[in-house]
Design a protein that fits this description.
- The chain is mainly alpha-helical.
- Helices cover about 45% and strands about 10% of the residues.
- The protein has four domains: about 160 residues, Rossmann fold (3-Layer(aba) Sandwich); about 160 residues, HUPs (Rossmann fold), CATH 3.40.50; about 50 residues, Helicase, Ruva Protein, domain 3 (Orthogonal Bundle); about 100 residues, Arc Repressor Mutant, subunit A (Orthogonal Bundle).
Length: about 500
Amino acid sequence: MENMPPVRVRVAPSPTGHMHLGNIRTALYDYLLAKKTGGTFILRIEDTDLKRTVEGAEQEIFDGLRWLGLRYDEGPDVGGAFGPYRQTERRDIYRQHAQILIDGGHAYPCFCSMERLAEMRARQQKQRLPPRYDGTCRKIDAREASLRVADGAPHVVRFKVPTEGTTVAHDIVRGHIAVENRNIDDYVLLKSDGLPTYHLGAMVDDHLMQITHVLRGAEWLSTFPLHVNVVRAFGWAEPAWVHLSLFLKPSGKGKMSKRDAADAIKDGHSIFVKDVQELGFIPEGVLNWIALMGWGVPEDDVMSLDQMIERFDLRNLTPSPAAINFAKLDYFNGAHIRSLALDDLAGRLAPHFARHGFPMEQQLLRQVTPLIQERIVTLQDAPAMAGFFARDDVEPIPEQLIGKGLTVASSAAISRDALGILQGAPTWKAADLEGAMRAYVAQAGLEAGQVFGILRLAVTGQRVSPPLFESMEIIGREKTLRRVSRAVATLESLAKEEKT
């Protein structure tokens, strides 16, 4: 890709649901290619499926791309010289281009009713024939068809695929693709409401917006020959075509279903951008993970966005289906969290602590962040691991305060000894506190895990926490001693109950 001229690329999602991994990967590759060549990255909203349009989905697309850091140069909300960037605002353009194809003998009005089409499909299914239009309206004289349109007859516009020969097209990833024209259907280009299908809208917009490279999902391979024929019927130069690899469910068998997506969210993962953000994943980790699903570089490469731009090459993309591996997402997310600057990470953690009822002042958050940075996989892990710092008191499960292999009475005695040692600590520094407690462990002939386990539950309320003594230093003398005192009282109460 050295010395490649600046490209114009677009990502063109439909606002018919949540923005998903497929959208992200296409947008990312578009972005990388644009930045690599000094080109232009465009967002176009393909909103012609009015029945399936979901309120708020368009804004989710805007927000998702910005959260990921994939800033587009042109789009509905930023403008540009090739707008409008919503297809519903380009109706007249599509009508004009559909008429150009009709006038050139490459398309025709189709007046078939929904009932007739349903009967046709049922007949084909009964005869075990592939479903396709039977060409009834293709046979209508052009003048007669024009008069019926002028009289207001309901109709769609279909493409007139050549009946003979073969369509050969080239894909950068998959090479030459050849399909016999008799196997290509006369697809609808313009619907009865005057809005285009993808087969017309995307081809027209890509030409008028001067798109040089079309990156899209492998699901469009089946209609790729049709699209090539549409472009050639207009007499336009074709863009460079790139059909990306399919995403498969984690098992590697089939595409993700709604049930698979529901199971993933239970395990703290999702295929939707909005969910991924709320689950505490960070853009750097998500992009690194997505980039390598279909890109032939080592799968464990931890890369920043700038490094991806530097290394990106269309020739490294692979056609092989990519199974969604959520464990890899965890790996990359954790790796990128550990690479963040302290203040940056603290700022990202703040809303997650607040959302779970643990609002932290900036100074406390800056003290806590270094203790958990090496231990969390997502930002969402932080409140469960370190929320105790923001609490006035903790409430450990009483039975869990009993040390491993110890009785209630001996655990109560250890907690009393620990409280006395901490009360007499001349300084409240982690190293000094740890030194004093380790000396006690050695003198008493105990195991550190037994003593520190009791102390950890008393101070943090949980069995797993950031480093104990660093946590105690941050919590402070007064609050720590109060928590240990409560633990002593709890264990002594358990010991009395055990005697009676």
